[in-house]
Design goal:
The protein has two helices and four strands, in the order E-E-E-E-H-H. The protein has about 90 residues and is α+β, with helices and mostly antiparallel strands.
């Protein structure tokens, strides 16, 4: 049994995921996480199988943007870094 969770995140600044050189622009991104139900245990538990990211075109929501498979830990790190004020990021570097 599979389930998909959908959320939208907002990046205030451009960002990179992991060691990639690709710079993603600031804006809204739709995030989909696919999970499968673990069998053989006495309570419902799920294991993440894939996380997808798609830029939301705020100016033209009907326009389809490319979808990319992403590492959820890299996505979480990018979201955390986006919320740290720029002055603190420079001090930590």
């Amino acid at each position: 049994m599979m389930r998909t969770t959908r959320t939208t995140v907002l990046f205030k600044h451009s960002f990179k995921l992991g060691d990639s050189d690709e710079q993603h622009p600031a804006g809204s991104y739709a995030i989909e996480t696919d999970e499968e139900l673990l069998q053989g245990i006495s309570f419902p538990a799920y294991r993440r199988t894939a996380t997808w990211m798609q830029r939301v075109n705020d100016n033209n929501p009907a326009r389809i943007m490319p979808t990319a498979l992403v590492d959820p830990l890299q996505l979480e790190a990018a979201l955390l870094a986006d919320r740290i004020p720029e002055t603190q990021q420079k001090v930590q570097s």
